[in-house]
Amino acid sequence: MSIVFHNDPFTPFDRHETPLNDSPGFVPGNRRSIAIPDGLFPTAVDAVRLRVGARPLDVAQWVSAVDDDWAPTIAMKRALIAERPHEVIACIEGAEEACEEVAAGVLASIGANPSMELGIDALVDAALQVADDLCILLPDEDGVPRLAAAVLCSPNRWRLAEKIDGTMASIHSPVARYEEDLNSPVNSVMMRLSPERPMWRINWGISNHPALFQPDTPPMTPEMDAADMWFRVEWQTLRRLPITGGILFTIRTYVEKLSDFMERDQPLVQDIAELVNKIHEDVAVYKSIAPYREKLFAYFETR
Fold it and tell me: pTM of this prediction?
């Protein structure tokens, strides 16, 4: 599948940018996303080892805060679901009740009317009213959580069809140092989850492509100016479902062009420079940072 380089986060990675006439303030070639919220950036300590970094989440907050990117993200999701549903929707047999439970919780949390749909259609209905992706894990006969259903419109270089019904270990098998740094802590977090104690964490990277819908890895572009690359952060939540006993895993993806990021406070920019400089080489390769590491560090240091 061909990859098209453009500057619009809401255009799929394999489509040419087609800005809408009613996009306020949008000029072709400029970013359309808002700034990544403060508090969602990694710290230099994350260079030592990958961390789950799970933190308590307000039990009433099922999805990310509403912002100016909700409308274009939902519009993107609606187009993807209409045009390529097999790439963004999946559900195994037996997950229907959990889909309905998640839809009820998500919609109630944003003050929306209950869904009139059933099964996976209820999950799709809820996903089309929030900016977050919604994934459900259910225990198999051995009690091991498996990805049972999802509406995933902002994949970060992975394909839903290849991960559905997988365990956390198999889903994350391409992640550098997952077995060494993350497997045991992730299992511990999931075991401790209760309906009264949801958690949130972040995942981050720097990309040469801004598309939220990015299931494939773009080719390396070592000639690219560092200012034209993009910070990508996922705000992820984990929540135990009280009725089915499954786990809701949500993902809200934010992207910010590095030239915009450089306008932030100098201490934050320097922290990211240190992180990029110190992360393990295998992690840098996995995050597609390795070919740009020296260029990125030098760019951040100009701040």
Answer: 0.92
Average pLDDT over residues 74-98: 98
pLDDT at 62: 98
CA-based nearest residue to 51, from 178, 196, 235: 178
Could you give the count of Cα atoms lying within 13 Å of 283 in the half-sphere of its Cβ? 21
Mean pLDDT of 7-36: 72
Residue linked to tokens 């494939």: 216
Distances in whole angstroms, Cα of residue 251 to Cα of each of 26, 61, 92, 94, 155: 26, 13, 20, 23, 9
Cα–Cα nearest to 9, from 263, 252, 300: 252
Distance in angstroms (rounded) separating the CA atoms of residues 53 and 48 = 13
Q: Read off the pLDDT of residues 262-272 as tens digits, 9 standing for 90 and up.
A: 999 999 999 99
Q: How far is CA 213 from CA 5, 48, 126, 221, in A?
A: 13, 30, 19, 19
Cα dihedral value 154, 148, 104, 85, nearest 10:
50
CA-CA distances (angstroms) from residue 116 to 101, 123, 228, 276? 12, 11, 44, 47
For residues 58 and 108, give the distance between their C-alpha atoms in angstroms, rounded to a whole number: 15
